[in-house]
Amino acid sequence: MTSIDSNIIIQCQRGEKEAFRGVVQKYQRMVFSLALKMLCDEDEAKDMVQETFIRVWQNMGEYDTRKNFTTWIYTIATRLCLDRLRGMKHIIPMPDDEEVFRRYASDVDTHRTLENKEWVSIVKTLAEGLGEKQRLVFTLCQLEGLSSSEVEEITGLDAKQVKSNLYVARQTIRERLKQLGYDTGR
Amino acid sequence: MLDNPDEMVENIMESLPDRVDDLHQKETKRNAILVALRTITSAAAILLIGLFIYVNQPVKTEAQNAYAYTTDFPHSSTLENMYTRHLQASQPKPISYTQIKRMCYAKN
Questions:
Q1: I need a surface site. Which of A12, A137, B40, B62 has the fewest CB within 10 A?
Q2: How far apart are CA A32 and CA A144, in angstroms?
Q3: Closest chain A CA to residue B7
């Protein structure tokens, strides 16, 4: 996780907007990446980035400087994503999404940077049927690459809950891959 | 992944509320609510204390009053006065008086 200079945080807490610009510049990609994978919609994800930073700005005074700032931003973003997700209809993959996924799966270059639309299609295809907590834990652990302890802090779940949600998510995705005709042999 | 990060930053910066003012406004509002609450609770407390005092006042029984004017014949009283007092005393007593008297007799 990236960290930020504590002076910038202090300036933001004093209400200096220009200092906050640095915070937005540093963390907007991270928040967008999470929101895109959680909401599977580029426009919604952009709205979410904006909403997250407004919330961060409004609550700067409540930020405890002893805690990790990145984790704090992630916590705000995940809560907002979950709220938005509850208000949304089920995310159902379209035939086009499956097509994108199949193309990606057959691609030889596994380190290729994915486009936003590709991310959306792949996550839509794989994460269909996941509960909101499983989707959240899976996104944070597997797609964003955060450690279990970080996920625990962000989600407020304990180690056992993180583990079990991740296990269920993996099993569901494995089943989904089987449905799509991929052998997931252990 | 963000196609236009600078534009996004500008949009966010433009939509940021003036936090300091907001906080100040919030604090003023909170203070006003607190003052109103304090006033209401103080008034309620005073009312309750008043009610408590009123309820716990020693009850001056009508029996005492009645007895007072039946037996109290000052030396300076004229016969007419005494007769009027006698008439008053012989009038039917309030229910509470008779009840209290009956209770006194029962105890003795």
A1: B40
A2: 11
A3: A25
Using CA atoms in the order A92, A169, A3, A154, what is the torsion angle rounded to 10 degrees?
A: 100
Lowest mean pLDDT among A95-104, A117-126, B3-12, B53-62: B53-62
Specify the residue for token string 């599977």.
Answer: A40
ipTM of the complex model: 0.78
Structural domains counted in chain A: 1
Residue type, B102: R
Domain that holds residue B101: 62-107
Kindly state whether residues B11 and B47 are assigned to the same domain: yes
Domain with A45 in it: 1-89
The model's confidence at residue B19, banded by pLDDT at 50, 70 and 90, is low
C-beta of residue A57 within 8 angstroms of C-beta of residue B17? yes
Contact assignment for B12 to A54 by CB distance below 8 Å: yes
Rounded CA-CA distance A31/A127 in Å is 19
Whether residue A32 contacts residue B4, with contact meaning beta carbons closer than 8 Å, is answered with no
Structure confidence at residue A181 (pLDDT): 84
> Do the beta carbons of residue A52 and residue A99 sit within 8 Å?
no
For residues A53 and A31, the answer to whether their CB atoms sit within 8 Å is yes
Report the range of poorest mean pLDDT among A156-160, B50-54, B59-63, B91-95.
B59-63
B11 touching A (Cβ < 8 Å): yes
Flag whether A33 is in a domain: yes
* Minimum-distance CB partner of A17 among B1, B11, B13: B13
Count: domains in chain B: 2
Polymer length of chain A: 186
CATH of residue A45's domain is 1.10.1740.10
- Domain presence at residue A147: no
